[in-house]
Amino acid sequence: MKISVAGTGYVGLVTAVCLAEKGHLVTCFDIDKNKIEYMTEGKAPIFEQGLEELMIKNKDRIKYTSDHDEAYRHPDVIVIGVGTPEKKDGSANLQYVYDVSRQLAQTIENDCTVIVKSTVPVGTSDKVEQLIRDNLKHHVNIEVVSNPEFLSQGTAIKDTLNASRIVLGVETPRALEVMKQMYSEFNIPYVITNRNSAEMIKYAANDFLALKISYINEIANLCELVGANVEDVARGMGMDPRIGGRFLNAGIGYGGSCFPKDTKALHWLAKFNDCELKTIKAAIEVNENQKLRLITKARKYFDSFHNINIAVLGLTFKPGTDDLREAPSLDNIPVFLEEGAKVKVWDPIGANNFRRKFPSEIMYCESIEETIKDAEVCFIFTEWPEIRQFDIDKYGKLMKNPLVIDGRNCYALELAGEARIVYESIGRKTISNYKNAYSVVTSK
Ligand code: UDX
After folding, report:
1. Residue 444 belongs to a domain
2. pLDDT at 440
3. Which one of 10, 172, 233, 315 has the fewest CB atoms closer than 10 angstroms to its CB?
4. DSSP-derived pairing of the beta strands 62-65 and 25-29
5. Could you tell me the strand order of the sheet in which 422-424 lies?
6. pLDDT tens across 281-306, in order?
7. Which of 290, 321, 354 is the last residue of a domain?
8. pLDDT tens for residues 300-329?
9. Whose CA is nearest to atom 15 of ligand 1?
10. What is the maximum span of the chain, computed from C-alpha positions, in angstroms?
């Protein structure tokens, strides 16, 4: 099939490349001409495992353009995969979705199925259909489908090619037929429903996962007070198949481009419809507090961070990506700087993006060793494999005051128990094998 994809961010580009991999002829449209040029040279504009390889492998089936005519005039299917960023009031900004709808309506010259893949509030596909009909230049038949994606950054290609389900929100048999044709090579079960339900599935699924994380984080905070270990608790809970073990890793909260935005958007949608989603509201609130949890822990040792040498390991919202959106590092590091700390950071991929936001206030290091050398406290914000595999004894050897405050539970307590450090983590007891830690720091 001839498929055009509007938007070349995570959703658009990954979808395009996976559709090409399955044999379709794909045209990627983006208004950013520089990005188009870059992709035409076979380069991926985002860091995503396997993406560039698939772009190169399928280069004969993928075109990149910023010309509306080329993208929208004759395709069988148009996928809308543009961003729906959060507005100040928490609702989703649908400007880009509507711009594409208007543009394609004015260009399209043959019958076409339009897929809304961006995460959009319930009812948006109806509005997209209306907008297209109002702006059509030619007498053509248009079907609009809601087909949300469930890809995670870092595993986006795998998540798309081996998805657990393909959700199809369709209003006509013809639309369903086209969708089945498009996905015929994927061998993934379908969930067939109407458009509003498909749109709701996406938000309800994402927000449920966010809620699960906030839930385990609250349990973790209580575990610390009552002497329980959250990892054992999560394992014991997760073995019940009704609960499931995934997304029960306690930490300093969820970040990224989806959970924070989608929880707020659903909460907003509920309020707009005169109802309140109390569980989602709680998930948002818990997450906001959890992001600053390590600072609360550090306050036991420091009244202020003034002149304190701070090491930060991990900047991105999760490992495997250079994305900093809603990353806890962005909430915490400004507090350190505001209080006059001397901050050194390390991240294997995210440092360059971070440098754009903080070009000179902090020191960027090439290795974990260099970062922790002479530090008085080390904060861990992202569970990169390099951090997990780092020799824990080196904290005791290299730091001036070996206090490690780990927001991602990178080290087993048994291991930390043998190291000459003070080790604080989430939902687990504090290890205190360096008796002077407290007094050294507070005597400053
Ligand atoms: C998420 C969804 O997983 C995906 O289905 C959706 O389409 C987009 O949003 P993503 O944001 O890429 O994907 O990352 P994910 O792996 O889900 O992690 C999100 C955040 O939750 C990260 O900050 C991560 O650290 C945190 N998290 C995840 C936890 O704190 N604990 C967990 O157990 C799992």
Report:
1. no
2. 47
3. 172
4. parallel
5. 363-364, 342-346, 309-313, 377-380, 403-406, 422-424, 431-432
6. 999 999 999 999 999 999 999 999 99
7. 290
8. 999 999 999 999 999 999 999 999 999 999
9. 152
10. 80
Whether 259 and 282 map to the same domain: the answer is: yes
Of 432, 440, 382, residue with least CA distance to 410? 382
213 lines ligand 1 (CB under 6 A): yes
Q: From the alpha carbon of 318, which atom of ligand 1 is closest?
A: 25
C-alpha 216 chain-centroid distance: 19
Q: Does the beta carbon of 7 lie inside 6 Å of ligand 1?
A: no
239 inside domain: yes
| 6 and 34 inside one domain | yes
- Cα 292 to middle of ligand 1, angstroms: 18
pLDDT band at 195 (very low <50, low <70, confident <90, very high): very high
Q: How far is the CA of 259 from the centre of ligand 1 (A)?
A: 7
Quote the mean pLDDT of the chain: 95
Query: What average pLDDT does the segment 405-430 reach?
Result: 97
Percent of all residues in the chain with a pLDDT value above 90, rounded to a whole number: 93
**Ligand 1: does its nearest atom lie under 6 Å from the Cβ of 238?**
no
- Total structural domains in the chain? 3
Residue 120, helix vs strand vs coil: coil
Residues 341 and 371 in one domain: yes
How confident is the model at residue 354, as a pLDDT? Answer: 97
Instruction: Give yes or no: residues 302 and 369 share one domain.
Output: yes
Our answer on whether the CB atom of 119 is closer than 6 Å to any ligand 1 atom is: no
Catalytic residue among 28, 223, 258, 365: 258
Residue 223 backbone phi and psi in degrees, to 5: -55, -40
For residue 327 and ligand 1, the question of a CB distance below 6 A is answered with no
Residue 157 CA to ligand 1 center (angstroms) comes to 15
Given a contact cutoff of 8 angstroms between Cβ atoms, the answer to whether 114 and 78 are in contact is yes
Q: Are 426 and 222 in contact (CB under 8 A)?
A: no
> Does 275 participate in catalysis according to the annotation?
no
User: Is residue 441 very low, low, confident or very high in pLDDT (cuts 50, 70, 90)?
Assistant: low
Residues 393 and 286 in one domain: no
**Residue having the nearest C-alpha atom to atom 25 of ligand 1:** 318
CA pair distance 231, 390, nearest whole angstrom: 21
Residue-number span of the structural domain to which 239 is assigned: 202-290
Distance 103 CA to ligand 1 centre (A): 33
End-to-end CA distance of the chain: give it in Å, rounded: 69
The response to whether residue 206 sits with its C-beta less than 6 Å from ligand 1 reads yes
147 and 214 belong to one structural domain? no
Query: What local confidence, expressed as pLDDT, does residue 168 receive?
Result: 98
Name the band, by pLDDT with cuts 50, 70 and 90, for residue 443: very low
**pLDDT tens sequence across 241-251:** 999 999 999 99
Domain boundary among 234, 266, 290: 290
